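Try this one yourself first.
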């Protein structure tokens, strides 16, 4: 039996591949558990500089597997409570990952698949792909960090519109709303995501780690506390080999050559 999540490598780019194409790569408990465990391993793997989340088949991810939930011995409410608990741990690992995480979206990204894409740092979307939050049309509410991330990406009013009306969001609209980073031709999302991952790895991963954390923390931190964190961050970056190299390169008027470690 095929694993519901596959882990592959292209050099220093790690690929997380959703592998349940017959059910639009919907998540059951086993898939979410593997996703969570894989993210923990990738976080500490010094040979990995960036992560791409992609999928087998025609679609990215349809979210939670409702057929699995309805077949759960304790009922769908208990199943979704269990599934969301593990899924949220995986989402936290993605959002805290000190390396770039890029989603390659094709076909449909709906429900938890929509939230999964939002939890990534960057999203590459194919021209025919569709985003849809999908929860509210099924009488559910958004999970997977969607209600936390969505208003921070598009603003509260737009997020409320997406939640209330649940209209499909095509690629060009997603791009204009800031939901995705780039729109590419059909069949090119994964390829472009790997290219972007390699571009990012030419930069300082230590600087990326600090920037990602500070930007995320800024929404929940008083300005005085945040300024102190920025102060600590820039001092720490200046002490890191990447910071030293970047400053030397600036003064010497040459391109910097950064190291491999984000730590």
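Now uncover the answer:
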């Amino acid at each position: 039996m095929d694993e519901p999540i596959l882990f592959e490598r292209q050099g220093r780019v790690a690929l997380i591949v959703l592998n349940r194409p017959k059910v639009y790569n919907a998540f059951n408990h086993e898939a979410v558990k593997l996703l969570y465990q894989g993210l923990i391993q990738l976080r500490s793997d010094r040979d990995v500089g960036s992560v791409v989340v992609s999928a087998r088949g025609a679609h990215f991810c349809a979210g939670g597997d409702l057929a699995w939930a309805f077949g759960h011995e304790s009922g769908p409410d208990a199943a979704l409570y269990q599934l969301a608990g593990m899924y949220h741990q995986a989402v936290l690992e993605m959002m805290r990952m000190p390396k770039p995480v890029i989603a390659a979206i094709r076909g449909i990204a709906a429900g938890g698949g929509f939230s999964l894409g939002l939890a990534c740092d960057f999203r590459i979307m194919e021209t025919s792909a569709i985003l849809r939050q999908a929860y509210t049309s099924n009488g559910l509410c958004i999970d997977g960090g969607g209600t936390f991330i969505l208003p921070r990406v598009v603003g509260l009013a737009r997020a409320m519109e997406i939640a209330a009306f649940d209209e499909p969001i095509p690629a060009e609209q997603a791009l204009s709303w800031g939901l995705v980073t780039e729109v590419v031709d059909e069949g090119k999302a994964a390829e472009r995501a790997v290219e972007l991952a390699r571009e990012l790895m030419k930069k300082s991963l230590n600087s990326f780690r600090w920037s990602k954390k500070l930007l995320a923390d800024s929404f929940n931190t008083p300005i005085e506390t945040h300024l102190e964190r920025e102060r600590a961050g820039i001092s720490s970056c200046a002490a890191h080999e990447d910071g030293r190299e970047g400053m030397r390169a600036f003064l010497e008027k040459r391109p910097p050559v950064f190291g491999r470690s984000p730590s």
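Discussion: The first strand starts at residue 5 and ends at 10. The chain has a mean pLDDT of 95.
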